[in-house]
Amino acid sequence: MPHPELDRDILLADAAAIEAVTEERFPLLALIDPSFPSPCPFYDQFASDPLQGPLNGRDVPILVIGNHSAPATSFGESEELVTETLTNDYLVETTHIAHVVYPHNRCVNDHIHRALIEVVYPDERRVVCEPQN
């Protein structure tokens, strides 16, 4: 979270105001990308009782992409997901200026494509992809 002192309720209450300002000040951006500003930081609000304990995907591996520079999801949240919540996971760690790394990093793309298309996961549970612009 960029501002950990703000809880999710405050951020959700601000979402409508942020959307209105975006439409007023950046009308072209609002037309081009209606998902801006993104609701990603607020997704956990839609489940009133968050799941507790490890999640076992019935032997289905989960590939998590952790971005040190994500403006919406901290790398710590990705790391926490793989160390404290998931039980069959792989962490691909990188740094990219935007929230979404795919398709802007060839190494990340390769891991995602191998996992989704070939069902092949990294040899290590944690791999690092160098930043690319």
Brief rundown of the structure:
The chain has 4 helices and 3 strands. With 133 residues, the protein is of the alpha/beta class.
Count, helices: 4
Strand-residue fraction?
5-15%
The averaged pLDDT comes out at 79
Rg (CA only): 17 Å
How many strand elements?
3
**Shape, please?**
globular
Task: Domain count, please report it.
Answer: 2
For the sheet with most strands, the description reads: 3 strands, parallel
Q: Give the termini distance in whole angstroms.
A: 23 Å
The SS-based structural class is alpha/beta
Poorly predicted spans:
none
Features:
single chain; 133 residues; alpha/beta; 2 domains; 3 strands; 11% strand
List the helices and strands and how they pair.
Blueprint: H1 8-25, H2 27-32, E1 62-67, H3 75-85, E2 89-94, H4 106-118, E3 126-128
Can you give a write-up of this model?
This protein has 2 domains: about 10-45, no CATH class; about 60-130, no CATH class. The model has no long low-confidence stretch (mean pLDDT about 80). It is globular and about 50 Å long. It contains 4 helices and 3 strands. The protein has about 130 residues and is an alpha/beta fold. It has a 3-stranded parallel sheet, with helices on both faces. Strand 2, helix 4 (about 105-120) and strand 3 form a beta-alpha-beta unit.
